[in-house]
Amino acid sequence: MTEKQETAAVSEDNRGNAGHNVAEINKTIAAVANEIVSLEAKKAEIQSEITEAKARVKGLGIKMADFNAALRLYKLSDEDRNSSIDGLRTCLEAMGIGAQGELFGDQPAQAA
Question: What pLDDT is attached to residue 110?
Answer without folding.
Answer: 45
